[in-house]
Amino acid sequence: MLDIAYPRVIPGPPRPSRILMPDSLHRQGRETYEVAGGGALLIPVSAGDVVTVTNTEGGQVAELVAADETGRIDAGLLGVASNSEARGLKALLSGGPRAGSGLGGLRLGLERRGIDLARAGAVARFDAETPAGASESFTITRAGNLIIAAPGADMAPDAQDTVTPLGVQVKRASLIPVRRFDLPDPLADPVLDLRVKSATAEAYFVKAGDYIQVIDVDGRQCTDFQCFSARKLDKGIEHALDVTTSRTLMGHAFSVPGLHSKYYDHDMLPLVEVVQDTVGRHDAFALACASKYYDDIGYPGHANCSDNFNRALAPHGVTARAGWMAVNLFFNTAIDAHGVVISDEPWSRPGDYVLFRALTDLVCVSSACPDDTSPANGWYLSDIHVRTYSGVQTFSRAIATRATPNAEPKMTKDTAFTPRTSALTRNVVEYKGYWLPQVYAATGAIEEYWACRQAAVVIDLSPLRKVEVTGPDAEALMQYALTRDVKKLSEGQVVYSAMCYPHGGMIDDGTLFRLGRDRFRWIGGDEYGGIWLREQAEKLGLKVMIRSSTDQLHNLAVQGPNSREILSRMIWTAPTQPTVQELGWFRFAVARIGGPNGAPVVVSRTGYTGELGYEIFCHPKDGEAVYDAVWEHGRDLGLRPMGLAALDMVRIEAGLIFAGYDFSDQTDPFEAGIGFTVPLKSKTDDFIGRDALIRRKEQPSHRFVGLDIDSAVDVGHGDTIHLGRAQIGVVTSATRSPILGRNIALARVDVIHAAPGTAVEVGKLDGQQKRLPAQIVTLSHYDPKKTRPQS
After folding, report:
1. How far apart are CA 478 and CA 475, in angstroms?
2. Among 2, 196, 523, 530, which is least packed, fewest CB within 10 Å?
3. How much is the pLDDT for 182?
4. What is the predicted pLDDT for the residue at 596?
5. Dihedral (C-alpha) 508, 514, 520, 523: value to the nearest 10 degrees?
C-alpha cells in the first residue's frame, strides 16, 4: 500500500476576511455626523433610536432641540426636560452665512418640516471645561426630528476660546430606512426628485442653468451618467457627452470643480460643469458596462448599464448602442505603472454626491450599476438618487476632504479675503480645503516673484491649520510632541519645529506660538496635527485641551523688503506689546489695525519666502478690513498680490520645504533638510521619535540637497537623479529661478553622493532615454544664511 501523507486539516469553518473600513461604511444601522463648530444640523429620528453626542475636542457647548412629526417642539423626544432657551442656536440662525456651518441646509430643513424655533427650549449639555471625548446618549421616545447645535461667539486673535465640532452617532432601532428622509436633505427645493432603482436606469430632462445632483444612497455604488444637447436631439443629432474630448480639453482624467470642470460632446459643445464633488474619484475612460463584458466573463444575459441606457433613452428617440461612453461616477479606476487599468471598491459613502450645472438644455440618463461580479460596487448593489434644482439657486464650487478616514467630509471654502482676491483673478486652485489664487490676472507669476524680492507682496495663507493648546499640561504636551525644546520658548516668541511619529518620520512641520505660560498655538499644514496632539494627550492623561481654530483665524502674509514699512503704517500696539519696528524675527505681537479701536490682529515676524516678512492673523469677519488696510498702506510701496505659483518659486530658492513634496511620514527631519529642529544634545527631555532620530542621525541613508541644472528643460517633483545608470536620488521640488537665471531643484540623494560639487544627471522620460546634467549644491540657493528675513 502507498503511504500517503495528507495535509493537516485545520478544524472548523472558514474564517471571514478581516477588512477594516471607516465607520460610515458599516451598514448596520449606525450613522455618524459632525456638527461644525458654530454650526448645526437636523437629523430625523424614530422611537428607540439611540443618539450619542460627543464633545470631540472638548470645551464645546451643545444645544439639542427636539420636534415631533408635526413640528411641535418637545424635549420629551429625548426622554429629558429642556433646560435652556436655545439662545445659541437662535443666534447662529440669525447671523450671517458661515461656510461649512450647515446652517443654510438647516433653515431649509426646518421650513420643510414646519418647525418654528421662536419659542423653542433646548437641552443644553457640556461647558467650557468639558474634556475631549466626553459624551452623552439619549434614547428617542417617538418619531420626530432632532436639531443639534455647537454655538459659540467669535474668537479674538489673541484668545483661544474657539468653537469646535461635536460628533454625533445614531444607532437606529430599525434597519428600515427613515421614511421620506433616508437621504440627506436637498440642497434647495428640488425641481425633480428621482430614485434610480438598483440595476436600472432613468432618463430625465434638465433646463439650461439648472443643477443636477447625483447621490450615492447607501455608499460604494457606481452610476453611469450621460447627457445630450436637447436642441441637437430635436434635430435628430445624437451627440452624447464625449469623455475623450472632455479629457483632452480639460487636461484631467475626469472633470473636477474649479478650472477643469466641464464635460463636452465631440463637437466641443460644453454640456455640463462639475460644481461640487464629495468623493473625488471617478472614471472617464471605460465604457458603461455592456452585455459583451458579462458574456466574456461567463455571465451571459446579465443586466448591464448600456442596455438599461438604451431602454431609458428610447422614448427620446436615441438609437441603441452596444456599449455607451459615459462618466462613470464613483467608479474607482487607475492606470498602474505598467499601463494596466485597475479598479477597486468606490470611495463614495452614504449620501456622497456630484453636483453638475447644465450648460444647455439636456436630456440626461443615470444608471445604478448592476455589476455584482467585481468590487466595482463594493459587492453590494443599491440605489442612486437624482435631484435637480432651479438655476436661480447659487451653489459654490467645492471639493470634499477628510482629515482621517472616519472624519466627516468638509467642503472647500472661501477664505476671509476671497471677496477681495476674487476681484483680481479667477485662476484659483483647491488647497487644504480652501480656494486660493494660483496667479493674478494683472501681474502673472514672474511679476509677483520680483515684487516679493524687490518690494512687497500680500499672500492669502488662511488654509494653514491653527490649533489652540491650553491647560496646565500644555507645555508638557508640546515638549513631548515636538522636536524643539519648548521650555526655552518665551511668551511672545515663535519657534519652527518638526512633529514626528515614533519611527522618526514626519507628521508635519510648523510654528509654535507661546501666548502664555499654559497657552500655545500650533500652526501647521496638516489638520491631522491637532488630532495627533489630542491622541497623545489622552494616552498620557494630561490636563490639556487641543482645539482647532482654523475657521476662526485667517491670515495674510506681507512679505518683501518693504513689508516692515507697510505694517508700521497700519499696525497699532499697546505699550505692553512690541511695535512693528521692535518686533524681532520669530516673535509676535497682539495688535490692532489703525488704532486702539481697530480690528484686533496678531502680527508675527514669520514667513515662507526667504525675505523680510510678517503674517497677520484675524477673525474672518475682519478679513476685508485687514486686506484693505494692507493695500491702502502698501500701494505706493510697490505692493502686489502673490499667488501660489510665485510663492513656490521663492520658497524653493530659499530651500523651504513643502509637505507631500519635500517630506512625508517616511522622511525624518534630517532627510528633509531641517535637522536644526532636532536639538538632540541640548534638549534633555524625551520626545516622540527621539530614539529613532538618534539612530537615523548616526546612520543616515539620504541627504537633502540643492541642485543646479544645466538645462532649460523643465524638471519636476519625482524626476529621478542618476550617477551613470544607477538611480541615487529623486527631485522633490523644482523651479526656474528668475534671479539665478537657471533651473534649480531640491532633492533627496544617497548620502554617499551628496557632497556639493558632485556631478549627476536628472532623468526624464523613463529616466534613461533623456538626461539633464546637474550639480549638487548647498540647500538654499538664495540667501543661505537667512540674512534677509533677519534684517
Report:
1. 5
2. 2
3. 65
4. 97
5. -30
Secondary structure element (H or E) that encloses residue 777, with its range: strand 770-777
Helical ranges in 224-290 per DSSP H:
230-234, 243-250
Q: First vs last Cα of the chain: how many Å apart?
A: 94
Three-state SS at 626: helix
Q: How many CB atoms lie within 10 A of CB 68?
A: 16
Phi, psi of 738 (to 5 degrees): -65, -40
Q: Could you tell me what percentage of the chain is helix, strand and coil, using 3-state DSSP and rounding each to the nearest 5?
A: 20, 30, 50
DSSP state of 586: T
Task: Tell me how far apart the alpha carbons of residues 182 and 349 are, in angstroms, rounded to a whole number.
Answer: 14
Per-residue pLDDT, 13: 83
Residue 293: partners with Cβ closer than 8 Å, 6 or more residues away? 304
Comparing CA positions, the residue from 157, 640, 201, 217 lying closest to residue 445 is: 640
Which among 538, 548, 403, 547 has a CA at the least distance from the CA of 480?
A: 538
Identity at 111, one-letter amino acid code: E
* 415, three cell numbers: 477664505
Task: Give the span between the Cα atoms of 87 and 119, in whole angstroms.
Answer: 10
* DSSP run (H or E) holding 691: helix 690-698
How far apart, in whole angstroms, are the C-alpha atoms of residue 550 and residue 67?
33
pLDDT for the residue numbered 23: 67
The sign of the CA dihedral 645, 647, 650, 654 is negative
Residue 714, all three cell numbers: 523643465
Q: Is 126 left (phi over 0), alpha (psi -120 to 50) or beta?
A: left
Half-sphere exposure of 450 (CA within 13 A, CB side): 9
> Which among 276, 280, 278 has a CA at the least distance from the CA of 351?
278
Question: Given this model, what pLDDT does residue 17 score?
Answer: 76
- Mean pLDDT in order along the chain per 10 residues (791 residues): 69 78 67 91 94 96 95 93 91 77 82 90 94 96 95 94 94 64 82 97 98 95 98 97 97 95 97 97 96 96 98 97 97 91 92 97 98 94 97 95 86 96 96 96 97 98 98 98 98 98 98 98 96 97 97 97 98 98 98 98 98 98 98 98 98 97 97 97 97 97 97 96 97 97 98 97 95 96 94 90
Contact 101, 40 (CB under 8 A): yes
Element housing 709 (H / E): strand 702-709
Residue 640 near residue 443 (C-beta atoms within 8 A): yes
Joined together, the cell numbers standing for residue 682 give 541640548
Residue that the C-alpha cell 458661515 belongs to: 98
pLDDT in the model for residue 100: 66
Q: What is the CA radius of gyration of the chain?
A: 29
Q: Would the pTM count as exceeding 0.90? A: yes
What's the CA gap between 80 and 633, in Å, rounded?
57
Strand 434-437 to 428-431 pairing? antiparallel
Asked if residue 300 lies in contact with residue 373, where contact means CB atoms within 8 angstroms, the answer is no
Which residues, at least 6 apart from 650, have a Cβ–Cβ distance to it below 8 Å?
449, 452, 453, 609, 610, 611, 782
Amino acid at site 686: D
C-beta separation of 648 from 735 below 8 A: yes
pLDDT of residue 183: 82
Q: Which residues contact residue 129 at a Cβ distance below 8 angstroms, ignoring those fewer than 6 apart?
A: 59
Which residues lie below 8 Å from residue 717, measured CB to CB, with a gap of 6+? 661, 731, 732, 733, 734
Q: Which helix (H) or strand (E) holds 625?
A: helix 623-634
CB proximity list for 610: less than 8 A, separation 6 or greater: 650, 651, 653, 654, 655, 656, 780, 782, 783, 786, 788, 789
Residue 617 cell numbers, joined: 492673523
Buried residues in 685-723 as b, exposed as e (16+ CB within 10 A): eebbbbebbeebeeeeebbbbbbbbeeeeebeeebbbbb
